[in-house]
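Question thread 4412

I'm putting together a teaching handout and wanted feedback from people who do this every day. The idea is simple: show students a protein as raw sequence, then show them the structure tokens that encode its fold, then repeat with a second protein so they can compare. Below is the first pair exactly as I plan to print it.
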Amino acid sequence: MKPRYDSASRWILVLFFCAVCAVLAPQGAFSQESALELFADGVVAFEEQDYKQAEASIKSALQMEPENDQFLYHLALVYSKTCRKTQAVEIFERLIASDSVLYRKAYYDIAAIYSAQSQHEKALQVLKRAIDQGAADGRAHLEAAVAAKNLKKYNDASNYAKEAKDINPLLAPPADNLLAVIAFEQDRFDEARLIFGQIMSEYPNSALATAAAQSLKAVDAVQKARKPWFVHAMFLVGFDDNVISQPLGPLPAQPPTGKGDSYQNLVLTGGYRFINERARRAGAGLTINHIGFKDLANNNIVSFNPFAFYEKDFDRFNFSLRYDLSYYYTGGEPAETRQLLWYLSFSSNDDKLVTHRAMPRVLVNWTDTVKTDLAAYYLYKHYMDDTPDANAYMASIAQIFPIGRASARVGYTFHKEDSGDKRLSSHFHQTSAGLSAPLVWKIHGSATYSFISTHYEEKLTDGSQRRDKTHRVDLSLTRPLLDWLGIGAAYGFTNNDSDRVDTINGAPYELFDFRRRVYMLWLNAHF
């Protein structure tokens, strides 16, 4: 017998079916909407540089739609910003393999990752692939020009830049700027100056014109530095409230005189660079240095310092080697013309010391503002009297890094001097920390604190050895007056605390404990 359905039963079936549709049919639509909402949240977090939240939101969206390549592309962007470059490149390459036209932008993302790692050759190869795939907007050519320039493939870089603006006239301004930079790096200064000038006239009041104006200043400065000869001069006046006794004497840390005096310092340096390339320089020159005191003329020093140097710039570091041969003379009479405030009599005639010094140095440039400075020297000291000759060695390391607008420097130095006479041998450890920063009115300030612990080889009568602890503070202000002329002022304070105590008339006397303050004001010029 056929089942019979009355009117009520039919309405119950209809309502049940509608309920099932209401539960099941919209479920996919709600799932898709939720994935899009999560993805949108991830994009917003990415723009706000909240990469942890961006990653969580995008991964949640991918769990709902694992085949959504847009979600996957943005996850790769998150990886590229959170030091997971390898994973990011793998995703970008997978997207390019699936659709090289739709995901052409992934070529540029991969190239940006390699460029940030200074792997410019890999970046260039990726951009060549984009060009071969038919990238017709000129962007790949322009970025390839940048990568080739970074590799110093200047002919290729120029060709790519010219092709970029031929393909897309809107890229002419950055392409021209890049051509000017290429000319600048090849020391074609007139051509670089011409192109930068054209950019300033064709695109006034633009960011590119402002950058071109700054580049013109750099062109002028570098062209001036490319002159083979150089001359530097400095004239300093100062006051020392506790003048060091016999500053070139053989005894280490000779105690001060306990007297203050005004003094002047004149330094003249001239030289010639017989190799004067952008990344390599070598030359020789002569420095004359004279310190003259107003009253304590026996402490006057005159030195003649012929020198030679070699410098080489590499991709991440700079290497330099310098050799100095110095002749020192001391003594003299107080200047007859001191009423005219001139103390440099050049009357020092006591042959005192000849030194030979070799100084290698490596400056590692991690970034433009983070650097490591490694320096050393070997110094041979030949005294003109019966004082035994000595050998000195120094090694230092300093780390330079930014703190806001300031530049911080912390360092350590070890110095050792060996002599045939134990009384003249010592070594010290020095730690230092300092800040330098631009202030106001083009004034640049710096402050440095140093602590020096000196150990002397000579054993005292009780079998002990002298130890000195020295605290030093140096402050300075400098300001340019003209392109070639500057002015500066400095203050130095030294406090020396020695554990050696002598006895005078039965009373203890701390011969080597002293405080010293030095005030300086100078002019310097560069030609």
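The second pair follows. I'd like the answer to focus on this one:
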Amino acid sequence: MNKIVALFVALGTLFIVQNAQAQSPVKASAKAVVVNDSTYTLKASILIQADWHVYAANPDGLNAPEFKAGLETVSLIGTPSYSVKASKQTDVLFKQANVYNGAVDIEQAIVIKGFQPDSLKTILLVNAAKGDQFLALEIPVNVALANGKKTAGFQVLLPAANTKVPADACGEGTQDTKKSSGWAVFFLGFLGGLIALITPCVFPMIPVTVSFFTKRAKTKKQGIKNGLLYGASIFLIYVLASVPFHVIGNVQPEIFNSISTNPWLNIIFFIIFIFFSISFFGFFEITLPSGIANKADSKSGLGSFGGIFFMAITLAIVSFSCTGPILGTLLVGSLQGGAWALTEGMAGFGFALALPFTLFAIFPQWLQSLPKSGGWLDTVKKVLAFLELALAFKFLSNADLVEHWGLLKREVFIGIWAIISIGLALYLSGKLLLPHDVKGEKISGGRKIGAILAFAFGIILIVGMVPKNTYLLKFLSGFPPPTHYSLFTKTADQHGLQANVVNDYEKAVQLSQEQNKPILIDFTGWACVNCRKMEENVWTDSEVMAEIQNNFILVSLYVDDKALLPVDKRFTYINTQGQSKDINSIGDLWATFQAENFNQVTQPLYVVMSPTQKILSNPVGYTPDAKEYLQWLQCSANKNK
């Protein structure tokens, strides 16, 4: 139900489908026959493996084989025709069904508006079965178009000599940034683990579990050993959960960015986190199937490490209703950093979760100092519910930004957060009652202080919505939509500093040559938190702004922009490892351009190139120190003289 489940489902399904197609019982080939300048007849021959059959049109909704246009400018005309008549056959799955056996040819008329590429990628949708096996296949078929032209494309890969960093280059590159950000992600994971510890699902488990270890152990030394093994097992479980992402990351280096900025996945996360928040409010409990917990618990009776390891798994499962939302937030937040960022975050989370169990097993007398479980745990859970609700709208905002829907402009987003913050204040002050709350219950001093802080935060958000007061919300840079994505502005391509060019590298090169200024490439993203921090906190520094405006041609390339390229600009790129990738959107183009030339897939990334497109300094990433960033800019500009 969290990010990891959603990702596994999406990628697992893709893996299964691709493997099914590689060993598919149905093969297809196709060609396009010219009718006139813009009209073709697609003809496909489908070969069906023995003992398998392909479904024809059936009353219960099963469709016959059909074409799916691979281009938005392609329209299907009429209905497809088939070379043979379907036969009625007894079918395990659908009793009596109309099917094709052996082979069938299909014809479909299409019309293409505007530019015609030299080849068209289409998909044949086929439903096939054998006994109780059923496959819904999407078979890609490419057809040559006689009237088409080769697409212009874009020279993604620059000459290797141009991207080689000079020996005396400015800046320390992105390695230090990676190291420091790794520790930052670990710390965030650790913080998430600490928060998980004080939830009703985990906190009561500490004394129960530690008491179990100490009472079962024959000696103090054995109790300490068991506690250490238990803590190590918890840590290992969460680290191992990130291992599949390393395998996934080897498919395409920018896959994590693609996943984290996918609008539909972000909408799914929005729904999931709304679901989590409602659960945290106390309306219902989220639990994994009891069978899973029972199986893990039954294994925990094994001796030595095996039993202790399964005890740790049991803890992870039974505490999922509280740790799931926190862990999901961590995974989504660190996803853009790639597989290692996920591992670092999971390691921090697991370490924080394991630490008290280990320490209390070594020093069981400390258990006496633990606060007793009580209503304060329910308060913690409901405070987390408000936080989860606020985070849910961040996911919806990500989808809105990359698709440019205009649903959550900056003021709308901040207004929603203000309402949530004031709602939290009302809850903490006892004015808003949630499930399991008692009317007239005495409000503790801590809750009163929390209510004052939440109310003050809500007021700051409301005041900060006004454009002239945006400086009040600088500490939130990256979470709300950027300042230019506003109800008060018409232009959607401006940010903290006006770029000379947006999403057009070739135009930037042209301006660079005309003005003899180096190019400052800003690899950014609509859903990139650190990019907004740079734009709103560093680029707005007067000296930094003057340096960029006077001495550089700034081009902002959005790697998560889902807007499609014109048909005549789309192409298939073959990378240096021989892998092919369809470049269909603006984001596809610039994500590939960044990965192939600069071996980086995270944003922001700043690269300085000469007018002849040669790298002048070490590319740098997120640099929150304005003076450090200014020094890098000045040194890089001097290399062009």
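Top answer:
Good format. For the second protein you could add a caption like this: Residues 160-175+495-638 form a domain with the Glutaredoxin fold (CATH 3.40.30.10). The first helix runs from residue 3 to 22.
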